[in-house]
């Protein structure tokens, strides 16, 4: 049986990319990059049990991450509304459109628009890809009955300790960042890497390696960063222009002094080398 990453993706009907609880920036960047690479090929969703942090907003597609595990069923809930006030619920099909009617009991008001809460439940995915993490505490949903029968795949820089009796196909291997591993698998599978994917992966590598200062950084890390920049990836610091800095903030640049609308030139000896003489003490 071919257990290559590309064959797993090819055989999947629906894919759920699952981020760990309280994920690192690198893990979110890696998961989103994989989501973007697969969204035009498969029915794919991406979920995280934790809310996204503000710092993740610079990643492309972060708004696609949901806290709901699946989207198999639509759930309609009336918040702060007593169920005893409802007499019955009916539905109709009008002009091909579904219409749900909630009829309150006499003397009761119907739920307001503000009280209607929509959510999803149930996992329809047959393949679950776990990003990062090292044990089941990072993926509490592994104990959910909704995942029974789904193929579990793990991508990370450390092996995942799965619960007893649970089979997980692991692609974990040592690397400086999870983004590196995702880049390797996406490239190996011949999936397209557009500028958005390249940017996410590049930002993930930078964050995961602490701007390439990690002891796990290798020549391959720099080669990946170079390849991603050639593919249109942009570093977070790009796009900041000289005029965006306050006067005097750039080393070696003298702040202009305005007098009468003209720049005042510094004294001629301002940039001349200085000679200092020491005093000997006998």
UniProtKB/TrEMBL annotation:
Domain of life according to the entry: Bacteria
SUPFAM superfamilies, per database record: DHH phosphoesterases
Region annotated Disordered, chain positions: 233-282
Protein name listed in UniProt: Uncharacterized protein
Species of the source: Candidatus Woesebacteria bacterium RBG_13_36_22
Lineage: Bacteria, Candidatus Woeseibacteriota
